[in-house]
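Because discrete structure vocabularies remain unfamiliar, we first show an illustrative case, written as a sequence plus integers encoding its fold.
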Amino acid sequence: MATNNTNNMAADKELFTSNDNFDMIRDEYYHDLLDGLGFEMSQKDNEIQQLDLKIDKMSDWMIGVQGPLEKFVLDQREKDI
């Protein structure tokens, strides 16, 4: 039994040591795979914000043109009558 316990303790020590090595390697070489995705998402967010600004400007322009366009159409109708 003593030999079996000694073997188990040696195996546990080896496992502990290999886990420590794994942790050390992971800490040294680990990189977050989501970092790239986060960067791409932030780029997409910037593109969306730029498109939102373009849409807002286009909407403002169309609203600004709407009044003169309606006046032009009414003037053309009066000329046609």
Notes: Residues 36-81 form one domain. The chain has a mean pLDDT of 75. The chain has two domains: 1-30, 36-81.
